[in-house]
């Protein structure tokens, strides 16, 4: 895929109808999963899913479909510079380039279904996006679900020297790739890994320096503001995750101001818990659907 690709679409009508233009003028690809309901019947609630870095929203059927089976309208979008959305691949100027689009999309859907409770799910960098969004917009939703969120820099992956180097590179070559995701650490299911490696909508070209600086700075900010989080919170994190640190989730559990907060640690779990085999992913999804359902009353 071209690094500077604009609209990533095959021109099909259903795709074109799913785009919205963000405040920076980029076309953002949105996806919607609708529950079966009678005409004029409101959904039980609205659930937005924020995907992780380099991937795209169409990888989340496994979470969305069980939610629609329980009466929820689920929606998501490819972050700017991801999937079918416009923008330079995995490049931002400010982390709010992501969060502003979440707020805009949630507002668009809420306007169509006034009065419906809103929940937001975020995986990996999507978890970072969700927490930052809620910190800046505390009334945007009734509760959040995090799956292996990136909340703290893992010194085993990115030490102080590398962070310093990335900051230097960002000043002179902001789009230079400075790291890659090892797909073998995504989950324990080889079929999922193969699909990830061969998915043309997944970005395989490396993570950019400027993106890295925005990401590091946002995690630092989140660490300083965790006590401001007041909404109900469910966090699932594998203790064998090699891409995000469990310590960040444990810190959030300790510091968040929420009275309703749960951290579920998955023994042996890798990064994409919703894809983990041997019933692990299935149970995680059941926990998410149950948790949201109980708080949608």
Automatic annotation (TrEMBL):
<dbReference type="Pfam" id="PF12146">
    <property type="entry name" value="Hydrolase_4"/>
</dbReference>
<dbReference type="InterPro" id="IPR029058">
    <property type="entry name" value="AB_hydrolase_fold"/>
</dbReference>
<feature type="domain" description="Serine aminopeptidase S33">
    <location>
        <begin position="42"/>
        <end position="278"/>
    </location>
</feature>
<dbReference type="InterPro" id="IPR022742">
    <property type="entry name" value="Hydrolase_4"/>
</dbReference>
<protein>
    <recommendedName>
        <fullName>Serine aminopeptidase S33 domain-containing protein</fullName>
    </recommendedName>
</protein>
<dbReference type="InterPro" id="IPR051044">
    <property type="entry name" value="MAG_DAG_Lipase"/>
</dbReference>
<dbReference type="InterPro" id="IPR000073">
    <property type="entry name" value="AB_hydrolase_1"/>
</dbReference>
